[in-house]
């Protein structure tokens, strides 16, 4: 298999190195195309007004001055265009991409772009606790088996796979489960007003976390809180069929 590896934390991120190791263990042809700088929270954005500068770093590694979606587009349409791409792996993100996070996540967006281009794609993220180091050994230990099992099972076109690892040591992982996308409680999220050294106000957004009380049974948040690896299939078609049927009657 020809595998494209990318991320949103940047070409020098430790999580990307982790995923490169996992992919190298499983596949013989791995190419990395990742953002030159961190692109967290960029969502599924592409660069329309800025040039995309592709730099070869040697050993099938490239950086792009663009978003994660830009990197996948460049990887599929340019870097690996000759023989094609069989799989896109995005991550391993430092921080979970759970519930509503997927709409903000550059990691998930890279898998979305791969899916749009007709390539089976996975996003992999590692939840971590703010007062503890990220447990890359957990992603490294379980990643190969999870990827292999997903490839064996397969999934339909127009669907990407979102994988989240819990913030615990490998020996404390309590299993793997397929689950629904949950919902975060963002009611407390509010840009914080700060003042720079010149007395001018600015605002800083970030730092939200999971609300344990909002973890519905069987969701990705629920599984992570139970120290399980969460596997969520995400469809690109976001149409709500029940509402569509009702509105079709209204506008018949």
Q: Which CATH class applies here?
A: Alpha Beta
Cα-atom radius of gyration: 19 Å
According to CATH, the homologous superfamily is Survival protein SurE-like phosphatase/nucleotidase
Write the element-wise H/E pattern from the N-terminal end onward: EHEEEHEHHEHEEEEHEH
Strand content: 15-25%
Structure in words:
Helix 1 packs across helix 5. 29% of the residues lie in helices and 24% in strands. The protein is globular and about 50 Å long. The protein has 7 helices and 11 strands. The chain has one domain: Survival protein SurE-like phosphatase/nucleotidase (Stationary-phase Survival Protein Sure Homolog, Chain: A). The strands form 2 sheets. Strands 3-4-2-1-5-6-7-11-8 form a 9-stranded mixed sheet, sandwiched between helices. A two-stranded antiparallel sheet has the order 9-10. Strand 9 and strand 10 (201-204) form a beta hairpin. With 252 residues, the protein is of the alpha/beta class.
């Amino acid at each position: 298999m020809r595998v494209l590896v990318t991320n949103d934390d940047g070409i020098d991120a430790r999580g990307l190195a982790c995923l490169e190791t996992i992919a190298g263990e499983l596949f013989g042809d791995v190419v990395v195309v990742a953002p030159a700088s961190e692109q967290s929270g960029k969502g599924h954005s592409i660069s329309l007004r800025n040039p995309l500068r592709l730099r070869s770093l040697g050993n099938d590694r490239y950086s792009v001055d663009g978003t994660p979606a830009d990197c996948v587009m460049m990887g599929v349409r340019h870097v690996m265009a000759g023989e094609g791409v069989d799989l896109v792996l995005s991550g391993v993100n430092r921080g979970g991409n759970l519930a509503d996070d997927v709409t903000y996540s550059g990691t998930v967006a890279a898998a979305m772009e791969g899916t749009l281009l007709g390539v089976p794609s996975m996003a992999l993220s590692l939840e971590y606790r703010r007062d503890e180091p990220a447990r890359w050994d957990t992603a490294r230990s379980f990643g190969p088996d999870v990827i292999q099992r997903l490839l064996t099972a397969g999934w339909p076109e127009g669907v990407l796979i979102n994988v989240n690892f819990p913030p615990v040591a490998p020996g404390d992982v309590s299993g793997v489960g397929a689950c629904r996308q949950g919902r975060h409680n963002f009611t407390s999220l509010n840009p914080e007003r700060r003042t720079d050294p010149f007395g001018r106000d600015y605002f800083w957004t970030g730092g939200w976390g999971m609300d344990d009380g909002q973890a519905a049974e069987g969701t990705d948040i629920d599984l992570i809180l139970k120290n399980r690896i969460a596997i969520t299939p995400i469809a690109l078609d976001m149409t709500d069929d029940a509402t569509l049927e009702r509105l079709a009657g209204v506008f018949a």
